[in-house]
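Hey, can you fold this one?
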Amino acid sequence: MLRRIALFLLVSSTGTGASSSSSSPLLLSVARGETVDRVPVWMMRQAGRHMNVYRDLVKKYPTFRQRSETPDVSRTISLQPLDRYGVDGVILFSDILTPLPAMGIDFDISEGGKIKIVPIQTREALEKRLRRVSKIDFRRECNFVGAVLEELSRGLVQSSPETTLIGFVGLPFTLASYLVEGKTGVGDNFPNIRKLMEENPDVLHAMLSLLADNIIHYACYQIESGAQIIQVFDSWAGHIDDEYYGLFCEPYQRRVVQGMKQQHPDTPIIIYMAPGPYSSGGRRLKALAETGVDIVSVDHTIDLSIARELLSDYDSVGLQGNLDPQLLRDGPMDEIRSRTLTILENIRGRKKCILNLGHGILPDTPEIHAECFVKTVQSFRN
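Sure. Predicted structure:
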């Protein structure tokens, strides 16, 4: 099982190995709208807790930040799903909160995923704690991110040129929700950020503006370090009603996407919003498509064929999704295979389609179920 990683480490460190392919890797080709013979597949959160090899590393590196900020460890974890499943995309093992310390905000993530941040809820706290500089040097402040991406890029070109390297960032509203709540606010419906929206919107706009500018720089840093696609996450924006979404979410989504496109127009961008009271059933798909992204990642609360119809006026926007992660966890494998084939039939012949889950893979998902999903996709031909 570890032979692929061992070969990868050899060629990335020595620069030797098979000569690189002149054609683009499959997933990148699809994101650019090129015609291919099959649909690419990867899984959100594919590198992490559901894998036995990852849990073995946890014993040696007990904190998430140790694992994500130690280049050799992050690189190894990023490659584990490629080695185990042969996925078409390798995504950086990191977190959307990773750039926060460079902005002046420390954070902690427990092994169960619980996030802890000293909250920012006033203008005074914002001005004191969030760094107000024109451009943070992420190459210096987050040098471990660039180191991992550069090594992954070199290694993939030599040992797995058909595999696409994916970076990712959080979008301003979702990051701001952590800063204001000091934790994941979904459990109690984001009371503090709602209070800011209603009572001190200028403070929230100032925070969102700073975050947007920094996220653009951070995403471009990932691209310049080797990421071929960037996925942007506004995970919690589906919990905000349409009025506030139009004020505090959508403008900053557009700002980040357009800022990235200005500097790297040829790098495809995928956008994802987790299912929530105002986004489930595809209610925010058009808004996401209008941000200027290349691909909208669809959650599992809507059939992908219906998502196609909703976005029929957006010919240049592709789709990613959307197997239910609970089905992937619970099975049985016949049902995983059947549902995956149904999704594939619904997008047969359509360009710019990527198979994924409707949310991140659940930590207690059996590896054999994930393998069944990936292999079912890869055996299907357009």
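The chain has 18 helices and nine strands. Let me know if you want another pass with a different chain boundary.
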